[in-house]
């Protein structure tokens, strides 16, 4: 009796921990909008924000990097971001879109998350960066908390590959190959 109860608890915890994204490879991600903050733009010395929605990602092959507003989440896929920077994909056919879920930041660190993203935008002004103050994307797509999500999307918006969590070397190579093949 004790073992069956333990097994039932373990199964329910596993299903909770492995919450699934609401779309699959070969599909388009559900449209979602970010009105509170939004996409960052460099305007002289200032950063401005504009409402953003996922339909704006059409027209280019993209790597979507959706992260919790935590250093630990950002670090999970830093090796992939470094590989993308080194690859220098053509800007007219490729773009990385980084969406930071400020709603999933440690309590009291929201302003640090915002200023860090603004600094990143100044350094990589060509990248698409979105500050999602309310966590709309993570909620709509049912992404895990305190994590990093990577997806490769073609120019039509079809998801070619995706994973939550840290990518290993072979997965990084797979992402880089998919991007190259779809430019």
Describe this structure in words.
The chain is an alpha/beta fold and 183 residues long. It has one domain: Glutaredoxin. It contains 6 helices and 7 strands, in the order H-E-E-E-H-H-E-H-E-H-E-E-H. A 7-stranded mixed β-sheet has the order 2-1-5-4-3-6-7. Strand 4, helix 4 and strand 5 (128-132) form a beta-alpha-beta unit. The protein is globular.
How are the SSEs ordered, and which strands pair?
Elements (H helix, E strand, L loop, with lengths): L1 H16 L15 E11 L2 E8 L7 E8 L2 H6 L1 H10 L6 E8 L8 H14 L4 E5 L3 H6 L6 E6 L5 E6 L4 H13 L2
Main beta-sheet annotation: 7 strands, mixed
* Bulk shape: globular
Span between termini: 57 Å
Tell me how many strands there are. 7
Key words describing this protein structure:
183 residues; alpha/beta; Glutaredoxin; 6 helices; 7 strands
Quick structural overview:
By secondary structure, the protein is α/β, with parallel strands linked by helices. The protein contains 6 helices and 7 strands, in the order H-E-E-E-H-H-E-H-E-H-E-E-H.
């Amino acid at each position: 009796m004790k073992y069956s109860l333990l097994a039932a608890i373990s199964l329910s915890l596993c299903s909770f921990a492995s919450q699934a994204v609401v779309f699959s490879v070969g599909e388009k991600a559900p449209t979602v909008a970010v009105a509170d903050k939004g996409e960052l733009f460099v305007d002289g010395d200032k950063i401005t924000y504009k409402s953003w929605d996922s339909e704006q990602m059409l027209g280019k092959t993209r790597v979507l990097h959706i992260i919790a507003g935590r250093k630990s989440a950002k670090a999970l896929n830093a090796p992939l971001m470094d590989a993308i920077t080194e690859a220098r994909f053509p800007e007219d056919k490729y773009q990385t879109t980084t969406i930071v879920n400020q709603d999933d930041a440690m309590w009291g660190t929201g302003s640090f998350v915002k200023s860090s993203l603004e600094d990143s935008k100044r350094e990589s002004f060509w990248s698409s960066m979105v500050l999602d103050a309310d966590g709309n994307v993570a909620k709509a797509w049912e992404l895990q908390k305190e994590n990093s999500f990577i997806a490769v999307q073609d120019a039509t918006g079809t998801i070619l590959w995706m994973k939550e969590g840290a990518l290993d070397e072979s997965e990084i190579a797979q992402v880089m190959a998919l991007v190259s093949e779809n430019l």
